[in-house]
Amino acid sequence: MAQQVASVLEVDQYTMGLVGPDQPWAGTVADGGTVRTHTPPGCWGPMITPSFRGGHEVTRPIRVDGAEPGDALVVHIRDVEVTSVATSTGSMAEREGAFGDDPFVDHKCPECGTPWPDTVVEGTGEEAIRCAECGANASSFGFDYGYTVAFDDDRTVGLTVGEDGADALANRAAEAMALPPNARQHPILLYEPDGMPGTLGHLRPFIGNIGTTPPIELPDSHNAGDFGQFLVGASHDWGLADEAELEARTDGHMDSSDVRPGATLVCPVKVDGAGLYVGDLHANQGDGELSLHTTDVSGRTELDVEVVKGLALDGPLLLPNVEDLPHVSRPYTDAERAAGERLAAEHGVDAVADAGPVQFIGTGPTINDATQNAFDRAGALLDMTEGEVRARCTFTGGVEIARLPGVVQLTMLVPMDRLEAVGLADVVREQYGL
Q: Which of 116, 219, 262, 417 is least enclosed, having the fewest CB within 10 Å?
């Protein structure tokens, strides 16, 4: 039976840490429609909940009417609202015996050996997550160094709290994290870390994991070229035979702080209906996500979607807000264009080429590998040699680190005739008012 096509689709159902073609649909939204999501935190909550098969709790996939493999899905990010009033985060420590090949994926109770055990909460602190079968501490993770952050009412700043504040928040953890009714994770505030109290941080919320469904089932946190490396050769159910199988990824797990309101994301479509999913909202993050984790929060998003037919992408493209672009990649001002025209006349150049900014997301085991991946993706899409890609990115762009060990944003001012040829010109013009 065909699903009803909604012009506005509200989504508040989630997976248990997996993305792939066998996940049940959240619903169908029209091409040109609006998606509104309400999501629980990613990362730490699912990480300490052993029944999860991946490190996030993302939405069920959203079918976009008319989207087919070989198309692209344009996602305009209209709003990201943080609903949590506090969170805990930090650098992780793995707990020996609580997992097999991968602490994010193949959890087991370190005492009774139950795989992906159901757990109960007993008190607070890092011993609070207990196996329902034998009562042992069953979580795969603790903090190497952790801290707890309380947010102001407007979610503009966050302040790290001390021992008393962390304990008080731990004792109302689910409420403070504003876990949605359908969430199945344990709230990380339970761990009550209290490092670096009194540190004030700027908040700017964004979406850490947003993309389209890959044609094979993957843990949601591993739908990227860096985290996905841990699947190659793994013995659990989501292990991949070799690096070539990881090419099926759609790189939804970017952790780019530029994926925020006002930005536009262009995603590859690799399954019928695209299968857009959303999760892992963050209150803030410095470039590189150097702890591998940041301020995970519950929140709401509003997204407008549209299908571009016949735009075959290997990985996502990002059109950030103008202020998030490198200086050399921003659209030309009228004064700059006039100066360029004078130089063209002086030096016998026929015309100043129209151009628009595009970021190519690259992922891989290391930053160098991720940058090479972005070079390859840019060259393939725009029919440019690697030399030309490198030259244009040096003169009119650059590379920024979204996440260590291997997610980058490669920026270029792309000639408009190249964008016209691949079907991206209208999207870029709309984004930047060109």
A: 417
